[in-house]
Design goal:
The complex is a heterodimer. Chain A is of the alpha/beta class. Chain A has a domain at about 1-80 and about 215-255: Rossmann fold (3-Layer(aba) Sandwich), CATH 3.40.50. Chain A has 8 helices and 10 strands. Chain A has helices spanning about 45-55, 75-80, 100-105, 120-135, 150-165, 180-195, 210-215, 240-245, and strands spanning about 5-15, 20-30, 35-40, 60-65, 70, 85, 170-175, 200-205, 220-225, 225-230. In chain A, strands 6-7-8-3-9-10 form a 6-stranded mixed sheet, with helices on both faces. In chain A, helix 4 (about 120-135) packs across helix 5 and helix 5 (about 150-165) runs parallel beside helix 6 (about 180-195). Chain B is mostly helical. The longest helix of chain B is centred in the C-terminal third of the chain and has 32 residues, at about 315-345. Helices cover about 75% and strands about 0% of the residues of chain B. Chain B has helices at about 5, 15-25, 30-45, 50, 55-80, 85-105, 110-140, 145-165, 175-180, 190-205, 210-225, 230-255, 270-280, 290-310, 315-345, 365-375, and strands at about 185, 185-190. Chain B has a domain at about 65-270. Classes of the chains: A alpha/beta, B mainly alpha. Chains A and B meet through helix 1, helix 2, helix 5 and helix 6 of A and helix 1, helix 2, helix 11, helix 15 and helix 16 of B.
Chain lengths: ~260, ~375
């Protein structure tokens, strides 16, 4: 994947919460059109790093580069305007609204001519939502029932479809398969591959090593707030990844 | 969806029958409408000449009109998972300042200009109290119950300060004779105004981005914020809307009774909340309808009216409404539980457990730092 161009890069990011140094100069690279897994033990700083890159938190020091240019991502909405979307582990869906309403929440389509009154164009949102799900290769039993009545896998699909519908560059997915059964898990991994094939880079945060090796193109490992190793997923084993996570294997210079 | 075949079943086309079924399952409105219709039929059969008379129907609607105006605003507030206890006091305060302004324009002799000035002042006063509620709740994060309990007392207290606790009766005659007691084509002004407010409220909630964002906030405020819904401004607007309608209610009340009725609205808040909840709006937020609220307002009104006509002690109405209210909330909770149970039967792992390292959860941090994360 090294022939590809870097899309989103973190350079020596630091972030402290009081006495706790969550990130101690962490670096991270996302290349164009790849699935990169970000792994690390609990407390390694994965979540903090992802928050800094998706606008949910701001680093104390270091640099974030988007397509080679330094950016300061100030909020999740700002990240979204840059083409960066996040699928949160809790999915962040409104359970009382239907899938189409969730897909367009905060970015509703308005009826031409009545937009100044804020009148929603529900039929267009419904049809575009259906198209987005078709593109994802999934279907929903109902587009008009509230999301709360969907199964766990279908809720996941709604959250993923929403992020993909709006992302033009990067999608962060935090443990997207953690709550799913075996069949659903396979489906979500298929979806992740399809997203990559559309040209959108996916950052996968996962604890499941076999899954990481199966779906990711590359793997980056965080330990104690720093990047300690990078792997091509095809040429690595679960043992390599675990060794890097636990400190038995260190590739990079760690200060 | 535990089998691959069902996952790929094409979406069911939204036929009319399916829509009706989903609607019936998803909201309590249809059941409460049934209850209202049953009550009306029962009273009509038991007292056909009195209950169903044009005079009685008109007075029933007139009594309900002001509560309905308050109820429309309360519906939006409760859908955000909030509450507004201050509506009755804001109504009184707005009526008082409106009456005082109209006094300055000549009191009972005041002309059209004075009436319009009075209306404007009543609406502005309502919006100001509502916006204050909204800022304290949305921006400062004080629980709605406490904020509006505070403004409930504060607005009533200030109204009494302004009047020394004595009702102001200088209401323009042209106001009392038109909006207060007048009719157009046999329909009282008050009823027409309440219906217009209800229709506008229903359209605002059902068809617009404002309504959608109101529901989204009540459903998952943090999730809504993450996708770019301006949660704080929306909350301010929703409470300001409730205040605006309470201000309008104050003006209508002045018109109807030709006095400020300072002592007459202490339980309006509870009556209105009960009506909204009876109408199928969930106290847990996210679900609700203005049409339901309209039905919910009429259930206590019809009960009261019917009991009086049948010679039953009208106190039974209070008892009956209390029982019905508890039942309505019970069924709301039952329906919600059934809904998520249904989902868990179909999917093996319904609710993703919150792991300690999810993006939504803050990493272990001292108290001071945690606030920074949440604000970031």
């Amino acid at each position: 994947m090294s022939s590809k161009k870097p899309l989103l890069q973190a350079r020596s990011i630091t972030r402290s919460f009081g006495q706790v140094q969550a990130l101690r100069g962490a670096s991270f690279d996302v290349y164009e059109g790849e699935i990169v897994a970000l792994i690390g033990d609990n407390g390694a700083g994965k979540s903090t790093l992802v928050k800094c890159l998706s606008g949910a938190d701001r680093p104390d020091g270091g640099e974030v580069l988007l397509e080679g240019k330094p950016v300061s991502i100030t909020s999740p909405t700002h990240a979204q305007s840059l083409g960066i979307e996040t699928v949160y582990q809790d999915l962040s869906l409104a359970p009382d609204l239907d899938p189409a309403a969730n897909l367009f929440l905060g970015r509703e389509l308005l009826k031409p001519g009545l937009g100044w009154l804020g009148v929603l164009d529900n039929s267009r949102m419904q049809s575009e939502a259906r198209a987005a799900f078709r593109e994802l290769g999934t279907e929903l039993l109902s587009f008009t029932a509230p999301v709360a009545s969907l199964s766990g896998g279908q809720k996941q699909n709604v959250a993923v479809a929403r992020s993909i519908a709006w992302a033009s560059k990067v999608v962060f997915m935090d443990e997207p398969t953690a709550a799913l059964g075996v069949v659903q898990r396979e489906k979500v991994l298929d979806v992740i591959r399809r997203v990559r094939d559309k040209g959108i880079s996916v950052v996968l945060i996962s604890h499941n090593m076999p899954e990481v090796i199966a779906v990711a193109d590359r793997v980056e490992v965080l330990r104690l707030g720093q990047r300690v190793a990078r792997f091509e997923a095809q040429q690595s084993t679960v043992e390599d990844l675990v060794a890097a996570m636990t400190g038995a294997l260190i590739q990079e210079d760690v200060a | 969806m535990s089998s691959p075949t069902t996952e790929h079943t094409p979406a069911v086309r939204p036929t009319l029958a399916n829509r009706v079924r989903e609607y019936a399952a998803g909201s309590g409105t249809i059941w409460i409408l049934g209850a209202l219709v049953a009550l009306v039929i029962a009273f009509t059969v038991l007292a056909p000449t009195t209950f169903a008379s044009a005079y009685n129907v008109r007075s029933l609607f007139t009594d309900a009109a002001i509560l309905l105006v308050l109820g429309v605003g309360m519906t939006f507030v409760i859908i955000t998972a909030g509450i507004d206890l201050s509506v009755g006091s804001v109504l009184v305060f707005s009526g008082v300042v409106s009456a005082q302004v109209m006094s300055a324009f000549g009191g009972t002799e005041a002309g059209l200009l004075g009436v319009f000035a009075g209306l404007l002042v009543a609406l502005l006063s309502g919006v100001a109290w509502g916006a204050l509620n909204g800022v304290l709740i949305g921006v400062f994060g004080i629980p709605p119950l406490i904020v509006t309990l505070g403004t409930f007392g504060a607005a009533l207290g200030l109204a009494k300060v302004l009047t020394n606790g004595v009702d102001d009766r200088n209401v323009p005659t042209i106001l009392a004779d038109t909006i207060g007691t007048g009719t157009i084509g046999g329909i009282p002004w008050l009823v027409i105004i309440a219906m217009v407010v209800t229709v506008l409220g229903a359209l605002l909630l059902g068809l617009t981005r404002f309504g959608r964002h109101t529901k989204a906030i009540g459903s998952n405020a943090e999730g809504a914020r993450r996708v770019g819904v301006a949660v704080k401004p929306q909350l301010i607007k929703v409470y300001a809307l409730a205040g605006l309608l309470a201000g309008l209610g104050g003006f209508l009340s002045l018109a109807r009774f030709s006095t400020t009725t300072i002592a007459g609205h202490t339980t309006d808040n509870l009556t209105v909340i009960a009506a909204v909840v009876l109408g199928g709006t969930s106290l847990f937020g996210g679900i609700g309808s203005v049409v339901g609220t309209a039905i919910g307002v009429f259930i206590p009104a019809v009960l009261q009216n019917g009991f009086v006509i049948l010679g039953i002690q009208p106190f039974w109405q209070e008892f009956a409404v209390g029982v019905v209210l508890i039942l309505a909330v019970f069924f709301d909770q039952y329906r919600r539980r059934a809904r998520s149970k249904g989902a868990s039967r179909r999917g093996k792992h319904p609710a993703p457990p919150r792991a300690t390292e999810s993006l939504g959860a803050a990493p272990p941090a001292p108290a001071g730092a945690k606030e920074r994360i949440n604000n970031g």
